[in-house]
From TrEMBL:
Protein name per UniProt: Tetraspanin-19
Sequence intervals crossing the membrane: 12-35, 55-74, 86-109, 141-160
Main location: membrane
Keywords on record: Membrane, Transmembrane, Transmembrane helix
Superkingdom, taxonomy of origin: Eukaryota
Subcellular location: Membrane
Source species: Dipteronia dyeriana
Membrane topology term: Multi-pass membrane protein
Gene Ontology CC annotations of this record: membrane
Length: 232
């Protein structure tokens, strides 16, 4: 029963974790497209001088890579059900949730939150803000769904850790009824004792009998005759 529940938890964790991976892949693809547009845009300018770094594009790309790494660690943790892997996965998810909570609190509680971010030379950050404002309801539900998936994955990893690691064998009690009748008929081999050879005991007995004969020879003739007959 426990193994069945553990298997279900592992499958659910893999499925939920795959959603995080798909979000990370989507972010990577979007960031690569932005980089391509930025390179085309910068191609119209002369190469002299240092161009400003589009921090929003690289930040978006980095977040996508981090989500993919978390997804890989989650799949490994779900497959092995190892305590260290599960703890590492939960640590990553907690850090991600804390980062998202901090950014959300800054946006909603700080009226001048835009000043906390540097100016993006590519203009991608400005277009991203305009897109969210024009589609706020859809973006809100998408963001809540992503956060919910991350919270569910954390809970599943916690429950899988509580169930313990996978056991690929059952206890001896489960097979006691099958093994006991066979064990009753088992003939154990004789115990071998390392010691002096057995023939030595016969030699000692022969020596004792010879000594008795020598003592009998010292007796009178009549007694010697009857003693010899008694020995043989």
């Amino acid at each position: 029963m426990v193994s069945m529940v553990r298997s279900c938890m592992q499958s659910l964790l893999k499925m939920v974790n795959s959603v995080i991976g798909m979000v990370g892949i989507a972010m990577i693809l979007y960031a690569l497209w932005l980089i391509r547009v930025w390179e085309i845009h910068m191609g119209h300018f002369p190469p002299a001088g240092d161009h400003p770094v589009p921090w929003f594009i690289y930040t978006f790309l980095g977040l996508g890579v981090i989500l993919c790494v978390i997804t890989c660690s989650g799949h490994i943790a779900a497959e092995t059900a190892n305590g260290c892997c599960l703890y590492l996965y939960m640590f990553f998810v907690i850090l991600l949730l804390m980062l998202e909570a901090g950014v959300t609190a800054d946006v909603f509680l700080n009226p001048d939150w835009e000043e906390d971010f540097p100016e993006d030379p590519s203009g991608s950050f400005t277009r991203f803000k305009e897109f969210i404002r024009s589609n706020f309801e859809i973006c809100k539900w998408i963001g809540l769904s992503i956060v919910s998936v991350q919270a569910v994955s954390f809970l599943l990893a916690l429950m899988l850790k509580a169930l313990g690691p996978c056991q690929y064998y059952d206890s001896d009690d489960d097979y006691a009824s099958d093994r006991v009748p066979l064990l009753k008929n088992v003939v154990h081999p004789p115990t071998y004792v390392v010691g002096d050879p057995v023939c030595r005991s016969r030699t000692d007995a022969w020596t004792i009998r010879v000594n008795d004969k020598v003592e009998i020879l010292n007796l009178p003739i009549d007694l010697t005759y009857f003693s010899i007959l008694h020995l043989y």
